[in-house]
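can u do me a favor
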């Protein structure tokens, strides 16, 4: 039998505090259909029935309907709401669980937003959009697996410096719980980069070249390598501050100082032969995408890393001018 939505609660013998579904709908702004559905599921059970079988609700129905509506607006399911109303679980417990669930949803929405902004900015094809969406929604474990697979592909089977390999694996991109748009964009770009076959091949060529160089001159220890990098950074910064172009005669003094340090850590004698050898190492290993890899990791992890790319570019150009001039 359908409920009488307009039935008056003041029939003979009834309590004036009982309401029909129609009255509840008018008092709460909910639809009759919604109240009837919630009543059928047991979250707002009727208190009594009329002689004709229509449902009547007591004074607590208004409060229950208000709570049910609030919890439904917050995404809580009716089975859980029924547990709350029956005091099997508390509102606080429900709130904690759903707050955590909302964190996951917000994170997912942020990732989707990053994908859509990237697609809009790049004018991507449907295929590229699908790829970016997959990359953005990877789990933490899947992201680590993707980077480890890239490292394995680039360096597997090579006699790579263990410290270098350890730094690659320890520099794993880790998206925070609430990443910024910049961090999400950086992750999508990094994930695309490490899957680029050209980038992988270039990194591997540089590693193979480094391995050959070590066989010729021996492997320098980490401290000596750091000293050479620092000398190049400081020397090129001084040259650029002075406005010295790498292919100018004035650059020769700076090149001599930096090349001498490089020769020392390589256990070689500085001179034309060494500088030709050094230029080959620099050109083989100077892939700007490698610097881009670390810049993206730094953005994702919130790191502040020194940018060696300008120094490497200036030094390479200056050594090239010296060798070929």
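np, heres the sequence
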């Amino acid at each position: 039998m359908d409920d009488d939505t307009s039935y008056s609660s003041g029939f003979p013998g009834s309590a004036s505090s009982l309401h029909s579904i129609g009255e509840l709908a008018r008092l709460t702004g909910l639809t009759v259909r919604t109240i009837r559905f919630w009543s059928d599921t047991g979250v707002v059970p009727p208190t009594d029935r009329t002689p004709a079988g229509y449902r009547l609700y007591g004074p607590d129905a208004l409060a229950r309907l208000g709570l049910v509506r609030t919890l439904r607006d917050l995404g809580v399911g009716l089975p859980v709401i029924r547990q709350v109303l029956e005091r099997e679980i508390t509102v606080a417990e429900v709130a904690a669980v759903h707050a955590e669930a909302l964190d996951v949803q917000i994170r997912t929405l942020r990732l989707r937003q990053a994908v859509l902004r990237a697609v809009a900015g790049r004018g991507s094809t449907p295929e590229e959009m699908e790829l970016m969406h997959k990359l953005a929604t990877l789990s933490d474990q899947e992201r680590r697996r993707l980077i480890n697979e890239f490292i394995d592909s680039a360096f597997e089977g090579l006699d790579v410096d263990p410290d270098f390999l350890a730094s690659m694996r320890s520099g794993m991109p880790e998206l925070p719980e609430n990443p910024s748009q910049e961090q999400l964009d950086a992750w999508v770009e990094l994930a695309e980069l490490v899957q680029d076959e050209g980038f992988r091949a270039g990194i591997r060529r540089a590693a193979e070249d480094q391995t050959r160089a070590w066989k010729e001159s021996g492997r320098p220890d980490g401290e000596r390598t750091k000293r050479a990098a620092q000398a190049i950074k400081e020397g090129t910064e001084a040259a650029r501050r002075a406005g010295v172009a790498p292919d100018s005669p004035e650059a020769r003094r700076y090149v001599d100082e930096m090349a001498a340090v490089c020769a020392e850590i390589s256990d070689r004698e500085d001179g034309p032969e060494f500088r030709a050898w050094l230029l080959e190492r620099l050109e083989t290993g100077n892939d700007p995408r490698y610097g881009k890899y670390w810049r993206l990791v730094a953005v994702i992890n919130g790191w502040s890393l020194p940018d060696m790319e300008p120094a490497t570019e200036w030094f390479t150009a200056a050594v090239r001018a010296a060798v070929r001039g």
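The mean pLDDT is 83. hope that helps!!
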